[in-house]
């Protein structure tokens, strides 16, 4: 089992002013708050063992003493057995295995392609199993992090671990509901058009699925890796074990206490660095290496470092941390590392544009608990730590942190005004082809962040860059293909938010009543597209397009007395 001893203040050296300042700061560190919501599992010990009969048989014999077992043999015994099976037995292949602890379902291919529900195949009442022991991987659950209750045990070591742990998974169990979802700010889709799918792409458990314009998260599959919250551009998915605001508030207080404890020795004491580590999987290893931890490095437990993303890193640097170290524990899920590294790819050009000579070293993904001692101390990015509240919305917190870091960069030199960011970054501009754009406002109606706005009664398209999520919904909704995305950071747009004009056009007025009702570009485009339509074959009919809706109908009746939709030749 994973060792969970915390590297508390007593285990950390305090032989220098930095070590004593760290100890004083950690004395005031509050424990992680308990989650507010929980997910419950119920298991009565109904175990499905999948794999070759010769492998499954002896394991079932041991486990059947405490559990209700069923064997789905993917290969029959090599030799005729000398005794009856130790559990309900069936030759077949698993199909469509899904679920979690207490609620696994599957279908079984029994012979020549015939597929049955589990109950019919085994001759039992229930279609569900509480636990699954997969001995050859044929169950097909290949997500980075398997659901609770599923054991893929191909090696002898994995099988021994399963034999030890499975009998203890009988009863009722709880885990935190790690996420909170606000669909009203989600950029996944709108009007049947798909935009951002970042969370679906990085979910290590396949707990997130598309539900049209929104997403759905299965709380029973979610295991709190936090990658979805890291890559979400709007903050629609928010981690709540603990909440980001709680973490930033606690870390801010920790940094303040460290500097206060250093007192007049601030100039000789290295700037504090925060080591965020997984409270479960990384705690034991960090405790063993605590004596080697540099005394200016302050360990802070979190549920999962994968949930700590760009806005939190920027905030911690603005609060005065010289560096943020991330320690996920042994063998983190590949998608967890990929999500965090994609955010590091955004952070690096941001810090370089701010003139930071240590941009590549500010946030470091550690390979192990001993890696921190090999890093040289860094100066903090800020002379005067920021004091903003980290409990706001994700975009607001990020903007406050950027403003603080930018203000410091201005004092130290001349930062770049704009820097290009990699594709998929959550910040950027949109480019509008003014010749193609008709100001139809399709982009305005679909933008989930109100980054693209109309000009009221004026034929004008406005843009708020600090709100843009780069989700691409506006580009997909544009009927003229007039919009392109440009991921970037334009600091002025975030430090001093405001509107700018993307496009504007001359208004067309009805020649009869003088009413403005469309842009001239839209009228010209409409006349061009309808020039071959039977309803506008004459000059009089085409001229009617220049009139507003009321005058158009009046002109039609005055000139033609109406028209018959069933007139020959008009089908």
Overview of this structure, please?
With 571 residues, this protein is α/β, with parallel strands linked by helices. Helix content is 29%, strand content 23%. The protein is built from 17 helices and 29 strands. The model is unreliable at 565-571 (pLDDT under 50).
Q: Count of DSSP E strands?
A: 29
Estimated helix fraction: 25-40%
Main beta sheet strand tally, sense and closure: 5 strands, parallel
**Which outline best applies?**
flat
List keywords for this structure.
single chain, 571 residues, alpha/beta, 4-stranded antiparallel beta sheet, 17 helices, disordered C terminus
Topology:
Elements: H1 17-27, E1 38-43, E2 46-51, H2 53-63, E3 68-73, E4 88-91, E5 93-98, E6 104-111, E7 114-117, H3 118-122, E8 128-129, E9 131-134, E10 150-152, H4 156-165, E11 171-176, E12 179-181, E13 189-190, E14 193-194, H5 198-202, E15 208-211, E16 214-217, H6 227-231, E17 237-239, H7 244-262, E18 273-278, H8 283-288, E19 297-302, H9 310-318, E20 323-327, H10 334-353, E21 363-365, H11 394-412, E22 418-420, E23 428-432, H12 442-446, E24 452-455, E25 458-463, H13 473-477, E26 483-490, H14 491-495, E27 500-504, E28 507-509, E29 516-519, H15 520-529, H16 539-544, H17 549-560
Helix pairs in contact: 1-7, 9-11
């Amino acid at each position: 089992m994973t060792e969970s001893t915390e590297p508390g203040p007593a285990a950390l050296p305090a032989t220098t002013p930095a070590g004593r300042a760290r100890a004083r700061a950690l004395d005031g560190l509050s424990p992680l708050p308990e989650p507010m919501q929980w997910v419950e599992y119920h298991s009565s010990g109904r175990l499905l063992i999948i794999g070759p009969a010769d492998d499954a048989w002896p394991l079932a014999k041991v486990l059947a003493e405490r559990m209700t077992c069923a064997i789905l043999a993917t290969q029959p015994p090599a030799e005729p057995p000398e005794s009856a099976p130790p559990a309900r037995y069936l030759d077949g292949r698993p199909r469509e295995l899904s679920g979690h602890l207490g609620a696994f379902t599957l279908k079984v291919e029994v012979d020549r392609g015939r597929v049955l529900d589990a109950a019919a195949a085994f001759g039992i009442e229930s279609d569900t199993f509480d636990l699954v022991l997969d001995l050859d991987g044929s169950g097909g659950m290949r997500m980075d992090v398997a659901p609770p209750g599923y054991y893929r045990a191909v090696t002898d070591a994995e099988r021994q671990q399963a034999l030890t742990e499975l009998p203890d998974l009988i009863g009722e169990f709880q885990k935190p509901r790690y996420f909170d979802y606000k669909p009203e700010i989600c950029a996944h889709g709108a009007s049947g058009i798909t935009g951002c799918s970042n969370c679906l792409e990085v979910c290590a458990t396949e707990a997130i699925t598309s539900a049209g314009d929104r997403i759905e998260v299965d709380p029973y599959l979610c295991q709190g890796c936090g990658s979805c919250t890291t890559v979400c551009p709007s903050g629609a998915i928010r981690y709540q074990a603990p909440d980001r605001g709680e973490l930033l508030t606690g870390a801010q207080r920790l940094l303040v206490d460290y500097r206060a404890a250093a007192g007049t020795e601030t100039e000789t004491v290295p700037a504090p660095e925060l080591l965020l580590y997984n409270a479960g999987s990384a705690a034991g290893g960090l405790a063993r290496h605590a004596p080697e931890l540099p005394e200016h490095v302050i360990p802070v437990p979190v549920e999962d470092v994968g949930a700590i993303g760009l806005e939190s890193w920027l905030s911690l640097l603005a609060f005065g941390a010289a560096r943020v170290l991330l320690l996920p524990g042994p063998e983190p899920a590949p998608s967890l590392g990929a999500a965090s590294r994609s955010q590091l790819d955004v952070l690096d050009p941001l810090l370089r544009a701010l003139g930071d000579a240590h941009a590549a070293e500010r946030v470091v993904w550690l390979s192990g608990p001993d890696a921190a001692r090999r890093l040289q101390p860094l100066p903090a990015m800020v002379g005067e730590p920021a004091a903003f509240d980290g409990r706001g919305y994700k975009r607001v917190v990020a903007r406050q942190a950027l403003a603080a870091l930018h203000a410091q960069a201005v004092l130290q030199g001349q930062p770049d005004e704009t820097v290009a960011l990699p594709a998929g970054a959550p910040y950027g501009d949109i480019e509008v082809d003014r010749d193609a754009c008709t100001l139809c406002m399709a982009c305005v109606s679909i933008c989930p962040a109100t980054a693209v706005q109309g000009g009221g009664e004026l034929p004008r398209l406005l843009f708020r860059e600090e709100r843009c999520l780069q989700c691409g919904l506006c580009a997909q909704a544009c009927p003229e293909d007039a919009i392109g995305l440009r991921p970037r950071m334009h600091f002025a747009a975030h430090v001093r938010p405001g509107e700018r004009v993307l496009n504007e056009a001359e208004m067309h007025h009805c020649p009869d009543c003088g009413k403005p009702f469309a842009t001239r570009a839209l009228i010209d485009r409409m006349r061009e597209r309808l020039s071959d339509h039977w309803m506008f074959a004459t000059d009089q009919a085409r001229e009617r397009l220049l009139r507003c809706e009321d005058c158009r109908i009046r002109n039609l009746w005055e000139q033609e007395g109406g028209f018959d939709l069933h007139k020959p030749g008009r089908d």
